[in-house]
Amino acid sequence: MFKERILKEDKRKGKGEAGYISFVKKKELLISIILFLAAAGIFILGLALNKWQKGNIFTIIAALMIIPMARFLTQFIMLFPFRSVTEEEAAEVEKAAKGGSIIYADNVVTSTEKAMQLSFIVITSNKVLCYTGREKEDASKCREYLAGLLSRRGYDYKVTVTGDRTVFFNLLKSSDSAAAIEFENEEDKKRFDNERAALCRELESVMV
């Protein structure tokens, strides 16, 4: 199921929800504009109150407001090349995924070198299946980064990343169903659920 179900009544978009990238871009740009206008207003007010001399406390306050503005603007610029998936695309993936799958949509994953788009990340019983959604995205680099990250953290999940839509849907349809796993006891089920929850936190930690 989609991670965003807990936010389905909320107009805001959370990580893993279709439309998250568009929502964040609009939010970051809006905040950047508001902070810039506020800084400009404070600066002009300071000039007007101090006989058009820049050396006043208002100039300092205005300069300090540019720092958070730059942070929000940088985030917007980083996300600008990426697009959100549509609700229809998200519904198709949810329909194709096996029961018990955890689905993340609208993902921008950051490494020390670059930001990479993974339109969908689907966690099955023992696999992490990803679809880049962009022709220019290097699927092998994405897979190398995610596989290395999970391996270093001790997760025994096979990572597959593809930019081919048909291949991705075939992988979903042929994957195992996490909901169909039979556990010998409740302790084993709890251990399985805890591991998947920890895996989700690990993936979310590298998402914008």
Side-by-side strand order of the widest sheet: 1-2-3-4
State the domain count: 2
Strand residues, percent: 5-15%
Helix vs. strand class: alpha+beta
Quick one: how many beta strands? 4
Tell me about the largest β-sheet: 4 strands, mixed
Overall pLDDT level:
91
- Helix percentage range: 40-55%
SSE arrangement, N to C: HHHEEEHEHH
Task: Label the overall shape.
Answer: elongated
What gap, in angstroms, lies between the N and C termini?
21 Å
Number of helices: 6
Query: What is the gyration radius calculated from CA atoms?
Result: 22 Å
* pLDDT < 50 runs, ≥5 residues: 3-10
Quick overview:
The protein has 208 residues and is an alpha+beta fold. Helix content is 51%, strand content 13%. It has helices spanning 20-49, 57-79, 87-96, 139-152, 165-174, 186-204, and strands at 102-110, 115-123, 127-131, 158-162.
Word description of this protein:
This protein is of the alpha+beta class. It folds into two domains: 20-79; 87-204, no CATH class. It is built from six helices and four strands. 27% of the residues are buried.
SSE arrangement:
Layout: H1 20-49, H2 57-79, H3 87-96, E1 102-110, E2 115-123, E3 127-131, H4 139-152, E4 158-162, H5 165-174, H6 186-204
Parallel strand pairs: 3-4
Antiparallel strand pairs: 1-2, 2-3
